[in-house]
Amino acid sequence: MLSSLCFCAGVIVAHARRDDYTAAALSDEITSLPGLDSNTFKDYRMFSGYVDVFPAHNRSLFYWFIESLNTPTSDPVAVWTNGGPGSSGLLGMFTEHGPFRPLSNLTLRVQPWSWVNVANMIYIECPAGVGFSFSDDAADYTTDDNKTAVDNYHFIQGWLEKFANYKSNDFYITSESYGGHYMPTLAQQIILGNKAGGDPQINFKGVFDGNPYTNRDENQRGEFETYGGHQMVSRPTYAAWTSECADGNASTSACTAARNAMRDEVGNNIDPYAIDWPVCTQKSRDDEVFLLYRHLRDQGIDDVRAPGVYGRMMDYFDRFPDREWYNDVDVDSEGVATKVGADAKIIVTTDGFPYDPCESNYLTAFLNEGAVQTAIHAKAKRWPGTQIHYEGGLPDMTVLWQWIIENAPEPLKLTIVSGDDDTVCGLAGTQSWMWNMGWTVDAQTEWKVWTDTNGQTGGYLTKWKGAMNLVTVHSAGHLIPETQPSRSLQTFTRYLAGEF
Description:
Elements: H1 23-26, H2 38-41, E1 46-54, E2 59-66, E3 77-81, H3 89-97, E4 100-102, E5 108-110, E6 120-125, E7 142-143, H4 145-162, E8 171-177, H5 179-195, E9 204-212, H6 216-229, H7 235-244, H8 253-266, H9 285-298, H10 309-319, E10 329-331, E11 337-339, E12 347-348, E13 354-355, H11 359-367, H12 370-375, E14 389-390, H13 398-407, E15 413-419, H14 427-435, E16 448-451, E17 457-463, E18 469-473, H15 480-483, H16 485-496
Parallel strand pairs: 3-6, 3-8, 7-14, 8-9, 9-15, 15-18
Antiparallel strand pairs: 1-2, 2-6, 4-5, 10-11, 12-13, 16-17, 17-18
Helix pairs in contact: 4-5, 5-13, 6-14, 7-8, 9-10
């Protein structure tokens, strides 16, 4: 079931590339990429640019597409966006399951367990106002779940017009975190759009959603049960939470106090997205500028309060000739910026891949390089520069998941994959809502161990008949491919094959 083609120590590059791209697609092809040596670059075929999802406002979503390293003509197409709301899909590409990871010197290293080993991958920045995505009407930066789903649906249609050679490929939608809202709302939009005769039709096959945010109560349960289960709080404090919050969330002062007590005991020197993994001890450039800005403001320097000063400070640091400034500046107790020269703590994952918790800092610096923005056909701007105002959506997505199961014209592959080292959208909360849906569990796959390619327990699998699947990934955080890249690729591959 699991081909060694996908899990060797290096990527497979001896694939047959497509030669049937439209002129519009070819105009978006990336011909070189700073930070990636020319020999490595030749192994990948990539395209990037914009799809206009609302021409009246020129509301356009930025995408980065990478052709599958396996058989692009027949491999599925998967679109990925990060959650947030307001996180860029390029985070998923460069710090999770894309083919490259950034280094502190702004070069790129190959990540051998990329999803492009088995699928044609599209990474998008949504909604408009996130990353390089934009609109000519600033009012568009106020958005919500429904508007985002409609825009993402129009993106897929527009992308398939530009890349018409992929219209017949199986199409999947994937995300994580607030993708627990993005994915079911988009799935519903695709089902309704196809039913209404939308052109082009989307050959929609399924949803693969990681550590999803489903509703507030289950999210609270996931956070605090994970703290208690990992023995990160004292027994009395955990007992107070289970009593006052009824093992979940309650809108009472006693429950609020119990939650606060647990968070206080856990402390602030852990990564809530991956509690057993190291934190980044380097400040990001945005952190540095903000601290300096705040210090000057608090000192009563009036010029700092003038409109645009913060932006001008960011521009200054963009041009600062010493790149180490991005990561090696601290602010002492007196508010003075000083060099500290701290190195990130690097450890090795169970896959043998170096894990660097500061990669997102390097990515920010990389994508703010002018030469990079030119190479990927992006409008020049400070990245990510997110400027959206996101209004509330449907509070409980379990209702929408049930609608999808009942209304899809043919059975979809609906799989939740969840790392067990996460408190932000913890596995305990996901288990709670899935087991409470009233679905019939498949006795052959009820909490069954799945083994990774190293012969170790990769996690557990549960299937509900005619409904959804749950796959857990052991020792993975909220961003599963960041901490367990090989196991992530294995779960995605087995999902595509219909096993997970």
